[in-house]
Structures are given as C-alpha cells and as structure tokens.
Amino acid sequence: MATVIDSEAGRVWRALTDPSEIVAWDERMLAPADDLSRYPFSGQHVRWRYRLGSVQLVMHDRPLEIDPPRHLRSRINTGSMGYERTFNLQPESPQRTLLSMRLVSPNSIPLLGETIDRFDVRQMATEQVDSTLHAVQKWCEEHP
User: Fold this and answer.
1) Residue 82 has what pLDDT?
2) What is the pTM of this model?
3) Pick the CATH number of 2-27+63-142 from 1.10.10.10, 3.30.450.40, 3.30.10.10, 3.30.530.20
C-alpha cells in the first residue's frame, strides 16, 4: 500500500527514523526502552514500549536494511506476533514523496492458546499499514 505525502523525502525519512517523531505520530508507540541516539542501523536491536489495544507490551525492532532516505526494512516482534516491515520512499517531485509500506507475516499467529488464521492476519496487516501510512502523512504535512 502507498500514499503520496506533500513533503520532501528527507522530511518523511526523519518521521520514520527519529524516535521523538515516531512516538508523536504513532499512538501505539509509547516510548523507546533503549538508547536510540544512533537509530536506525543494520543489526541493531531496539526495544520500544508499545500499546496493542489496551495492553502494554515490548516491541522488538531489528533494522535489517537501511538506505536513507529511500528504504528501511525491519524485523518486528511484539508478543507472539512477528513480521517484516518495509518502507520505501520515492520522490514524486521536490516537495512530494510516494511512501509505500509492506508487511510480511506468517499465515497464522498463535495467540493465548488459539491461532489467528491467514484471513484475519491479512486484515490486521492491511489495517496497520493503512493507519501507519495515514499517520505519517498527516504528521509530515502538519509538521513541515
């Protein structure tokens, strides 16, 4: 999924990689649990305090590929859920950026003795991508 943001790619990249901006635009991210003065770099393991609904968890974020300001791929684990998240940024003009996001997750997720099947996983992933893209877009356009 993708959206066009009325901001240059460097601005969008900063929204995706500056910890203080991440917690400002993503209501699920409460705060970093580790020192993020050098975030992100490949091979890093970062913990975030994270909210999933009304439950607070620790999210593990492992950046895998970083190519500023064009590409960020990370392995994310929250509780029993794990997936790969990829952001791609493509300038559409000097002041517009196409931001795409992709989630790759297993076909089912174990959850408290039950499993969530692939159709529910797909719906959850689609909703997360959509809400993330819109939150980044709104943040970047309101905070140039």
Assistant:
1) 85
2) 0.88
3) 3.30.530.20
